Model the fold of this input.
Amino acid sequence: MKRTTLIVLLLIYAAMWAAAWVSRDPFERLPHLEDEFAYLYQARIFEHGDIVIDSPNPRRAYWQPFLIDYEGKRFGKYPPGWPLLLAFGTSTRIPWVVSVYFAGLTIAIVYRFGRELYNESTGVIAALLMTTSPISLLLSGTLMSHTAALFFTTLFMYSLWRIELRQNILWWGFLGGISLGINIAMRPLTAVGIALPFVIYSAGRLGWVLYKDSPAFWPTLKPLVVLGMVTLLIGAMWPAFNYAATGEPTKNLYTLIWKYDRIGFGPEYGRSGHTIDKGIQHAKDDLRCYARDLFGWTTYPDNPPEKVQANNNCVKDKPGVSWALLPLGFIFMHRRKWSILLLALAVSLVGVHMAYWIGAQVYSARYYFEMSSALVLISAAGVSGFAQFLRRFQLHAAVYSLLFIAVFVSLIGYTPDRLRALRGYGRVTRDQIEEVENLRESPDTPVLVVVSGEHHWRDVAPLMALTDPYAANDIIVLRDPDSQYLPMLRANYPDRQLMLVIDQKLYPIAPEAEP
Done:
C-alpha cells in the first residue's frame, strides 16, 4: 500500500470518528435546531413506508416544530431528499450515523478529485484540510443535510471533470445526474448555486465545438444529456413529495408555516421584507463566520464568547483568515480553468443565498458549506504549488511544516471551544431524558409525558426528539397548552406511566392521582 493511500485511509477513519464524537459530545445525539426535528420526524415516516401520515387529534397536542398539518395530512416542510437518506439511520435507531458515513465519503472523493485535478500532494493536503475543518466537524455531528449535500456536490464536480477527460462519459454523466438530482431533492436553492457555473461552462463548451464544426460535438453533448435527464428524474422527488402532501407539485411548503418564507426581494418576502442591501449584509455576516470556521484560523488574540449568544450566533471575535491560502492557489496552480470554475461555484452559492431573507450562523455559515470542497481544493493546490516552487531552495519541507502547525493549532486552540459553545444549545440536553428514566416504574414501562399549561416547546425538546410520528416508542411527550387535553390523552394511552411537566418541572403522577 502506498504511503499516501494509507494517510488518506487514516484521514477517512479520523473524519468518521470525529463526526461520531461530535454527535455524542456536544450534541448528545439529539437534534437542536427546528430543522433537525422536522428532518427526523419525516425520516421516521419514510422509514415506516409512508409519505405522509394522518394529522393526529388533537393536533396541538402532537405539535412539533416545522411540521405541517394540511387537509388532514401531516408531514415535514422540507424537501424529501435528506429525510429519505436519514431514514436508513432511523431504521437502525442510530440516525446520526448517516452523516458519519457521508463525512468519510467526502474525504475520499476530495482526495481523489484533488489528486486527478492537480497532483497527489494536493489530494492529500485537501483531505487533511477537509478532515480538520471546524465547520465540517460541526455539521457532520448534526442531523442537518449539509454533510450529505457536500458529498454530492463534490461528486457532481468530479463527474463533470471525468466527463471532460472523455472516460466512460455516459457513466459519469449518470453519476453526475444522480448527485445533482439528490441535491435538488435535499437543498434546491443550494443545487441552483452549484449547477449555475457548470451549466454556463458546459454551454460554452458545446457552443465552441459547434462553432468549430468539430466531430467532438456529439461526444460532448451525450453525457450532458444523460446528466440532465437523470437530474430531472431524481430531482422530481421534490415535486412528487409536494403532490403527495398537498395535491400541488409546485406548492411551496415553507409558506404553510410562514407565509413570508420565500426566496426573492420585496415587502412580502421575509419577516420584515427583504432587500438587496439585507442580502448583502447577510452575506457579509455569514462570510465573516465562514472565514473563521473553514479552517479555524483567526487573527490573535481571539476571545470569542463561551456560548452561543443572541447577537453572536457564530461565536466569533477576531476576523478569520481561512481564506489565506486561496491567493496561493491561483498563483501556483496549473489547472487554472477548473480552479476558476471551483471559485465560481463559491461565488454562485453566496450569490443565490442573498435572495433568501435570513442568514445562518448557529451551525456556522452552513448555507455556504457546500462550497467547502471547492475552496479546500484551491487552497491545497496553493500549498502544494508553493512547496514545489521552494523545492529548488530546499525549503519545501518548511511549507508543509507550517501547514501542519496551523492545522494543529486550530485543532487544539479553536475547534474544541467552537464546538463546546454549542453544548446544550436551545436547552436541549439528555438531562431531561435521564430524569424521566429515573422516574420510570421499571426500565420496560412505557411513559407518557404531558407538558401542561403555558410553555415553550423547548421546555420538552429532548423528549420531542424521542417521540415518533406513530407515538410507538417507549417515551413520548404530548402538549396540553390549554390544560384541557389531559383526560383524552390519558385515555388514548392507558398502558403508559403518566408524568407531567408544569413550569419546566417534571412530576411523576401516582396511579391514584391520575385522571
About this structure: The mean pLDDT is 96. The radius of gyration is 25 Å. The first strand starts at residue 53 and ends at 54.
